[in-house]
Amino acid sequence: MTEQWHQLRNPGLVPGGSDPAIAAEQATRLGLDRWRELPRDQAPPWPNQTEVDDVSTVLSTVPPIVAPYEVDTLRAQLADVCEGRAFLLQGGDCAETFADNTEAHLLATARTLLQMAVVLTYGASLPVVKVGRIAGQYTKPRSAMTDALGLPVYRGDMLNSLEANAEARRVDPQRMIRAYANAAAAMNMLRAYLSAGTADLRAVHHWNKDFVKNSPAGERYEAIGREIDRALAFMAACGVDDDALHTVTMYASHEALALEYDRALTRINGDRAFGLSGHFLWIGERTRRLDGAHIDYISRISNPIGVKIGPTTSPDWVLEACDKLNPDNVPGRLTLITRMGNQKIRDVLPPILEKVHGAGRAVIWQCDPMHGNTHESSNGYKTRHFDRIVDEVLGFFEAHRAVGTHPGGIHIELTGEDVTECIGGAQALADEHLSQRYETACDPRLNTQQSLELAFLVAEMLRH
Ligand code: PEP
Ligand code: MN
Description:
This protein is an alpha/beta fold. The chain has helices at residues 2-9, 20-30, 49-59, 68-82, 103-124, 175-194, 201-214, 218-237, 259-264, 293-299, 315-325, 345-358, 386-403, 448-463, and strands at 87-92, 128-133, 250-255, 266-269, 272-275, 280-283, 305-309, 334-338, 364-367, 374-376, 382-384, 407-413. It has 14 helices and twelve strands. An eight-stranded parallel beta barrel has the order 1-2-3-6-7-8-9-12, surrounded by five helices. It has a two-stranded antiparallel sheet with strand order 4-5. α5 packs across α6 and α5 (103-124) crosses α7 (201-214). The chain binds phosphoenolpyruvate and manganese (II) ion.
């Protein structure tokens, strides 16, 4: 093990890592390019394959965004989630943009996730594994080819621009290089800031106290806030001062949609391939066909992976997906991210849980209460109501309690800024507030207050 880790930490020792001929032969052996021959939903309308190939060649030799040993560490931590000894918190923008890839924006997201994690850690009395939709969440699957103005639809900053004109909407392969540079810069900043003061537990708890003080629903959360206070005072009095109180590891995740990008950042070590564009890669509800390109690509990398499953998913489909994506039944390898909608989860999820649990499959169950609960507001905004989000998480917990499986985590679209994109919550945002700060490049996100409120409510669910 030690020797293997030594190799993983030293890319120079990766066999074939720098020799293109050996790397190509190994890639063939591992089937890393099989996806190119398979049906592919949501394929970007690339203007010209030569340019895509040239960009892929560039990206195939750059330093990766993440390191193989980190990917393996995350997998080990997710094994704890799978077996009920930890909880998984994943969140961030629906679509990251290059313009918003700033210190302020990244810090706000990280800080919100850390604040939520403290509350959840306390509520669950379990370690919380923290994963951002960050440093690479630059592609979006779309339901239509054109937008309301009749322009080619925005597909995420890695592919085209949100700007509303035909030229900006042209898919440009060079944007993959910008995506790489932005992801690398984001990851660099996060690593540096989170290994210093930003992650200090006392500071994070202090921000939570501000939230409790200022939230219209603060009273409800005061009890948990006070308990955490006392727990911290107790630890301080005992002289507990561990590194874990001052530093945090936050992992990076994104949807593997522009497969050219993720494939180009894949590196081989011995018998294993690692997708090093991020620690955790997931496949979306719209690209999860089992005989398709996306599922084939992620089946061949060693990372922890996720698949979003919507309300039409059958128990048999899930078993087949487990066979294909986790044939060795490794705990922590596969996360199923349910996004059923609050009105369906109580009917659709239990039979899936029963079947998978009965078959003894190692799966992390994570609740995405966002994507099944989107509607159009009276004044034309794509929005989500806080109550439906909370209700889907409740339904998720109910289903797991009934079947005896571990409700492993939540997957949230959020930002650490005071946007007005989702309605409801203690601030009582309503349709007429949406125009004040509706800034998302794609789906509506919970703002800071709504995110923290959700964390307190989930902490209550975890305790009961
Ligand atoms: C997303 O996570 O932004 C997304 C598109 O989700 P889904 O694939 O579940 O629709
Ligand atoms: Mn989304």
